[in-house]
Amino acid sequence: MRNVKQAVIMVGGQGTRLMPFTKHRPKPALPVLNKPCLRYLLESMAEAGIKEVILACGTGYRSQPLKDAIGDGSDMGMSIDYSYEEEPLGTGGGMKLIKDRLDDVFVAANGDVFADILLNEQIDAHFSSKADVTIALTGVKDEDRPKFGIAIIDADGRITEFKEKPKVNETSSNLANAGIYVINKDVLSLIKENKFDFSKDLVPKLMKERKRIQGFMLKGTWRDVGRPGDLLDVNIDMAAKHGDGTWEKKVSRSTVKKPLFMGEAASVSGSDLSSAVILNGTKVVNSTVNKAMIMSNCTILSATIRNSIIGAGCMICPGAEIIDSDIEDGLTIGVDKKITGERVKKE
To answer: How many helical (H) and strand (E) elements, i.e. helices and strands, does the chain have?
Structure first.
């Protein structure tokens, strides 16, 4: 593996589709099991030998909650710095803003996805193929093509065609841009404007200039986390993958159908659990929790929660039923309250 020591992560998105959970925290700080979502990508970078990470923040970005959540990187053997934009510059403009700080070859990634990956193999593939840019690709369902940039590759893995968010019938490929790149810095000079989008502007320009854009099939766990349902799914997936070998000590008089993850100082008694993620300090008593994520420091008493996310610090009172819903941090759901298909926010 060739050495790449530097990475840029674009974290400027506001996460509006993930409301109400992004009201008090930036999207990369949302929890996946017991860690912020962004932490998994950072740990993947650390394992690949990255020593310096620059977080490219948008205008008015709330960086302090993110700093509080992930720290300065020293515990991962790296340094984490922040770069701010005076005006929105797109997914690529943030890189050009800090161009003078960048190494000749660096990693760039979108910070609004979940990525627990083997980045070192993508870096090695970049050098082996003599590519100008190497893009991580992942397979998606036919109906999800319009959400992503879709690539067509040849037998050598070179990207020969790239369509940004095509209609379902505009391409037969299911290889989506996963938003993780290895980049030769000199390609940034092809874009003269400071404000540009990587997929919409730079990739087409590279193809026109006949630069080599290599596709690399991503290895590891990757998920787009655009909506609360995505956040719930990735938590359940990671609970199945990693689990928590100590949860038996935190559960009494209950039935459990895995996957189950329980955070520190969490407890469950007299309850039925299946496909559940219960975070630090949460207490569940005499309740049914099925395909649900309950964030930290909640109290759930004789309630039913299905296919839902409960925000941090909530109180769910006896007889309450919460189905297919999302509950903002710090709310109390009253006795016998029935909630179905809602995003419940503070008034």
So the answer is: 6, 27
DSSP 63-112: HHHHHHHHTTSGGGT-EEEEEE-SS--HHHHHHHHTGGG--SEEEEEETT
How far is Cα 279 from Cα 297, in angstroms, rounded to an integer?
8
Tell me: the pLDDT tens digits for 278-316? Answer: 999 999 999 999 999 999 999 999 999 999 999 999 999
Give CA–CA dist 161/190, Å, rounded: 19
Q: Which residues are catalytic?
A: 165
Q: How far apart are CA 15 and CA 13, in angstroms?
A: 6
Residue 247 predicted with pLDDT over 80: no
Q: Which amino acid is at 188?
A: L
The two tokens of residue 89 are 């510059």
CATH number of 235-344: 2.160.10.10
Is the dihedral angle over the CA atoms 22, 268, 280, 336 positive or is it negative?
positive
For residue 85, name the pLDDT band (cuts at 50, 70, 90). low
Which of 203, 216, 31, 184 has the alpha carbon at shortest distance from 118? 216
Are the CB atoms for 301 and 286 separated by under 8 Å?
yes
* Amino acid of residue 22: T
Fold of 6-224: Spore Coat Polysaccharide Biosynthesis Protein SpsA; Chain A (3.90.550)
- The pTM of this model reads 0.90
CA distance 238 to 242: 6
Q: Is the dihedral of CA 198, 201, 203, 205 positive or negative?
A: negative
The pair of structure tokens assigned to 229 is 């349902």
Two tokens, residue 15: 């996460």
User: pLDDT at residue 318 above 90?
Assistant: yes
